[in-house]
Amino acid sequence: MSFITRGFTGRSRERDDRLPPGQTLVHDFPVLSAGPTPEVDTADWEFTIRTEHGGRRWSWDEFMQLEIEDVTTDIHCVTHWSKLGTSWRGVSLDTLFAEVETEYDYVMAHSYGGYTTNVPLEELLGGRAWVAFEFDGEPLDPEHGGPARLLVPHLYFWKSAKWVRGLELMPTDDPGFWEQNGYHLHGDPWKEERYW
Ligand SMILES: Nc1nc2c(c(=O)[nH]1)N[C@H]1C(S)=C(S)[C@@H](COP(=O)(O)O)O[C@H]1N2
Ligand SMILES: [Mo]
Question: How far apart are CA 54 and CA 46, in angstroms?
Fold first, then answer.
């Protein structure tokens, strides 16, 4: 009996190790949108990286020719919910930035519908960020950002811009939509970088 008890304790401690401070686990998938869900047809969808030199643009079909990765990761919303082991499919930002030259260190993500969020370029590289178009083996639901969203799971989920349409390189770390409204510029859930 004590062996079984210890086993359960160990497992929940392991789970707690994956829960950043102040977070609570959820098993559903809450929807948090600052505005209405934009209707974006993949026939019209484009993804652009804009740099000081010009940049690069992909159509949906071109995007689907890129190397596609499966990602399983935990996600953490600043409103205190976390979801463990979510599964996604998408294109790594390493793959996209392999085709782009820039001296700039900061990125503004832009979404269909007007949402923006800022992230240092370095934090989008090194296998830490994707443009995701599937969740749980299905095309990404429009309310969760379909046809495609940014996925930056090591930062609070507001950085994972839904309906993403492009990235703009910037020389300075300018605040995006929530960051202008009091959310932290960086947003590391392990440091509780919620508001400032
Ligand atoms: N375009 C856009 N992206 C967005 C948001 C938004 O309002 N608009 N909300 C952000 C916030 S605060 C969170 S927590 C997550 C929520 O994603 P979900 O609705 O798929 O759970 O999306 C982020 N990306
Ligand atoms: Mo959020």
Answer: 16
